[in-house]
Amino acid sequence: MDTIIAIKGLEKTYASGHKALKGIDLDIRRGEIFALLGPNGAGKTTLIGAVCGLVRPTGGTIIADGHDISKDFRAARAKIGLVPQELATDMFVTVWNTVAFSRGLFGLGPNKAYLEKILKDLSLWDKKDAKIATLSGGMKRRVLIAKALSHEPKILFLDEPTAGVDVELRRDMWQMVRRLREQGVTIILTTHYIEEAEDMADRIGVINKGEIILVEDKTALMRKLGRTEVVIGLKEPTSAAPTISGHTPLISEDGLTLTYVIDGDENDEAPADLIKRLAQSGMDFTSINMNRSSLEDIFVTLVQ
Ligand SMILES: Nc1ncnc2c1ncn2[C@@H]1O[C@H](COP(=O)(O)OP(=O)(O)OP(=O)(O)O)[C@@H](O)[C@H]1O
């Protein structure tokens, strides 16, 4: 497996004495989309900050594309683009100039064709001469992304990219993320919108109280921890719940609803099989509902 970021024993204790990262070990694979999930205050921003050189770790090592962040910072940082949560500076500069300036910070010469392409991809081209202060919140977000991409990074961090963003920008953003991945860029994102991680990510990491509690392939995670509830509405109340293929249902108080729970690691056909057998048993049912647990359910269970 080709690792692009290797984090070992990473610790951060703030001056306040708060331990925000407690010995993080994490490998990010080249070319993947990795979603880092965690509740408020879990340490996501601190972890990203440490990799991007904004937070000075108090222990451990970070290697980004072969460069040690603390010993070889400039070379490591040149590989990384960061889309932070907020735009801090540059209010009176034009879109074009701020993006070109960001590129220059990495010692790269101007590349008009490249900058034009990213501005066009982000629907910012017609705003290229507008001052940042005159842009809407969504447009400012697009500028942040353009700045992060200005030096052609191999690794892109997106910290809560879609918080407070409208539907159109969210869609554009994910299209762009997919395009970048196709070009071989590795993407690490944090999000509170778990359905986005479910849609986009190849792997999921969960951080809680400064510790990584799980890193898993998304599909494997859904399979392992996800479950399906088959809810059967009955015509007549029952008190005797039929056990089918080893599954004993929960019976509602009125005896009219049976809920069978099928674990995620069972056969894909298990729910259909169960329904067929119920029908064969002669039971008279009026409705069938299937609820699959989402990544959100899995996440809440894990963090609890
Ligand atoms: N500069 C700082 N000084 C002291 N404590 C800090 C500092 N920055 C962050 N913390 C604390 O470290 C912990 C981790 O914060 P961090 O911002 O990394 O969490 P997060 O997972 O990004 O949270 P959120 O989802 O709310 O953005 C929190 O308890 C926070 O209060």
Q: Descriptors for this entry?
A:
alpha/beta; Rossmann fold; Alpha-Beta Plaits; 4-stranded antiparallel beta sheet; 10 helices; 14 strands; elongated; binds adenosine-5'-triphosphate; transport
Secondary structure: elements and pairs:
Blueprint (H helix, E strand, L loop, with lengths): L2 E11 L5 E11 L3 E5 L6 H8 L7 E6 L2 E2 L4 H6 L1 E4 L11 H11 L6 H10 L15 H13 L5 E5 L7 H16 L3 E5 L3 H7 L2 E6 L2 E7 H8 L1 E8 L15 E2 L5 E7 L6 H11 L4 E8 L2 H9 L1
Parallel strand pairs: 3-8, 3-9, 6-7, 7-8
Antiparallel strand pairs: 1-2, 1-4, 4-5, 9-10, 11-13, 11-14, 12-13
Bound molecules: adenosine-5'-triphosphate.
Protein name: ABC transporter ATP-binding protein
Keywords: ATP-binding, Nucleotide-binding, Transport
GO molecular function: ATP binding; ATP hydrolysis activity
Summarize the structure.
This protein has helices at residues 44-51, 73-78, 95-105, 112-121, 137-149, 167-182, 194-200, 218-225, 270-280, 295-303; strands spanning 3-13, 19-29, 33-37, 59-64, 67-68, 80-83, 155-159, 186-190, 203-208, 211-217, 227-234, 250-251, 257-263, 285-292. It is an alpha/beta fold. The chain has two domains: 3-222, P-loop containing nucleotide triphosphate hydrolases (Rossmann fold), CATH 3.40.50; 227-293, Alpha-Beta Plaits, CATH 3.30.70.
